[in-house]
Fold:
Amino acid sequence: MIVLQPDSRACSISAPSTAEETVVSAASTPLKDRSAAASKEYIPQVLEKGSASVNTKEVDVERSEQVAVSFPEGGFRAWLVVFGVWITQFCSFGYTNAYGVYNDYYVRYYLANHTSAQISWIGSVQLCLVLSIGIVSGRAFDRGYFYHLMIGGSVLLVFCLFMLSITQQGQLYQVFLLQGVGVGIAIGLMYIPGVGIVSQYFSKRRSLALGLCTSGSALGGMFHPIILNRWFHGSLGFHNGVRASAGLNGGLLLIALLIMRTRPFPSKKHDLSAVKSFQVFLKDVPYAITVFGTLSVLAGLYYPIFFLQLNAIKNGISPDLAFYTLAILNGASAFGRVIPNLFVYRFGAFNIVIPCVFVAAILVFCTLKVDNAAGTMVFAILYGFFSGAYASLLPPMINSLSKSDSEIGSRLGVCFTFTGLGGLIGTPIAGVLLGSKFLWWRPIVFAGTCVTVGLICFVTTRIMKSKERGTQRL
Structure:
C-alpha cells in the first residue's frame, strides 16, 4: 500500500513485515480475541492519484501494529504440523524422560567408580539446559529462525549421541559433556520453537493441540526406556545400543523437519530485551511467586522419574519387570498431558494445576512405603498421569498471568530459566541424600517437600489473582 511517511512530503511503498509468532503463543489460548474494531485501528494514509494532499488521522503507533490474525484451527496442513512437532517431542523431551535408564546403567555398571550424586549431575544439567535455553531459542524463533533452530538442534542431538557411543567406561567427564551439556543444548534449541509453531495454526483449540504435541514426549519416554534396556542389556550392549538409538532419532527428526511449515505472522518490533524482561516481570508479585513455585516443583518432580527403575531393582523387584516401570510411568503421562487440558478453557489453568500437583506431592511421600512390584506399578501409573498433567499445564498457567498476548513469550522464557535451575539442583541433592548406602527416605522427603512448597506458591497466587480479578475461574 502507498503510505505517507510522517516527517516527509515524499511517499514510499511499504508492506507490513512478517516474522514467526512469539513463543508466547506456545503457551495456550489467547487472553482475549482480537475484535474487528481492533483491526480497524490500523488506518493507512492513502494518497489519491495525482494529488499531493491527503486526509490523515492520528494513529497510535503501538496499536496500529496489532494486525488481526486468523487461525486455521485445523485442516491437513495444521494437523501435519502437529504430527511433526509430536515427532520432535518424541525424540527430544521423550529422550530426556528416558534418562532413568541411563542413570540406572551408569550407577550399577558404566560409571560405578563414581557416586550417585556425581552421576546425577548429568541428568540435572541436561534438564536445566533443556528449559533454560528457551529464553534464547524463543527469541530466535520470534525473529524467524525456526528452521535454523530445529535443524541445528537435530544435528547436535544425533551427533552427541553418536559421540556418547564411543566414550570410555568410567570416564564421567566424557559422558557429562556429551549427554549433560550437548544433548541438553540440542533439545533446548528445539523445545520452544517446536511447540511455538503450533500456536500459528490454532487459537481456540490451542490447549488441545499442544496437549497432543507434548504427549509425544510421554510416549517417547515410554518407548525409549523399553528399547534402550533391551539394547543395553541384550546383544547390542551399551555402545552399539546408543548408536542404534542415535540413528533412530535422526531418521525420525528428518521426517519431522520435512513436514513442519511455519506461517507468516505480524512482526513485533518492540519486544523487551532478555534483561528487561527479568526486571519487569519479577516485579509482578503473583508472577514471581509462581515462578518460584515452578522452580521448587521441578526440584522434586523428577526425582521419582530418574530413580524409579534403580529404586525398583534395589527393592528386589525382578530386573525384567523393573525395566518397564519407567515406560509405564511415561505411558500414563501421555494421558495426563492431554486429558486435563480439555478442561482448562472451562475451569482455568490454576484450578486444574493445583489438584494435580497436590496429588503428585502425596504420591512422592507414598514411595516411602512402596517396596513391591504391585505398589511400584500403581505408583508409576498414578505419578505418570499427574506429573505429566503438570508438565503440560505449566504454559497455560503462565499464560493466565500475562496482561496481553504480546508478553506471554517473554514471561515463559523467564519462567523456564528459573524452572531449569530447579532441575539443575534437584536431582544432585537427591543423589547426595541417597548416598552409597541407598537411604531412600532422605531424597523422598526432600522431593516431596519441594513439590509441596511449589503447591503452596500456586495456591497463594490463585488467591491473590482471584481477589484481583473478582472471579474463581483462574
Notes: The first helix runs from residue 36 to 40.
